[in-house]
Amino acid sequence: MTELPNESIQKQLRDLGYRPENMRIVTVSAMTEEQLDACTTQENECFYNSYMNVIYGKGDRYVLGFRCEDPVIDHALIRLGDQYFDPTLQAAGEFTPYTFAILTEFTVFDMIRHAKSNKDFPPDVDYIQSKKSKFKNVITS
Q1: What is the pLDDT of residues 40-69, one digit of tens each?
Q2: Which of 39, 76, 92, 127 is the most buried (most CB within 10 A)?
Q3: Is-above-0.85 flag for pTM?
Q4: How many helices (H) and strands (E) does the chain have?
Q5: Alpha helices in the chain (DSSP H)
Q6: Inter-residue contact 70 to 4 (CB < 8 Å)
Q7: Do you find a cis peptide bond into 20, omega within 30 degrees of 0?
Q8: Which residues pair with residue 61 across a beta bridge?
């Protein structure tokens, strides 16, 4: 993955209709092998994996946002304590820490509540866009 300059990340997010000034940029780290082995890691299923990992206590928060690549890619991962992890990408092979722009984070209760109003699918970027009024701090009108 190619790291992007902050200005490029902000421009891409703005072009997509977001408020990058209200989004936190974090570094996603590698989990220990023991942590990764305990996680759900279906290939190319970041939203499902992150959802299941939070339900089963492998993460504290379901984190929705964008991998800061060129172009930015909508993605979900987990937060455990004050660290961010991506079991989906890490399980796929060689993992290098990367930059992630956080759109929102959900506790397990909020994540399940939003999934119920999203036909039992984990919240994703399209879902957040459909609920603009609830996320107007990070979505432009």
Answers
A1: 999 999 999 999 999 999 999 999 999 999
A2: 76
A3: yes
A4: 6, 5
A5: 6-15, 33-38, 46-55, 87-91, 108-116, 125-130
A6: yes
A7: no
A8: 79
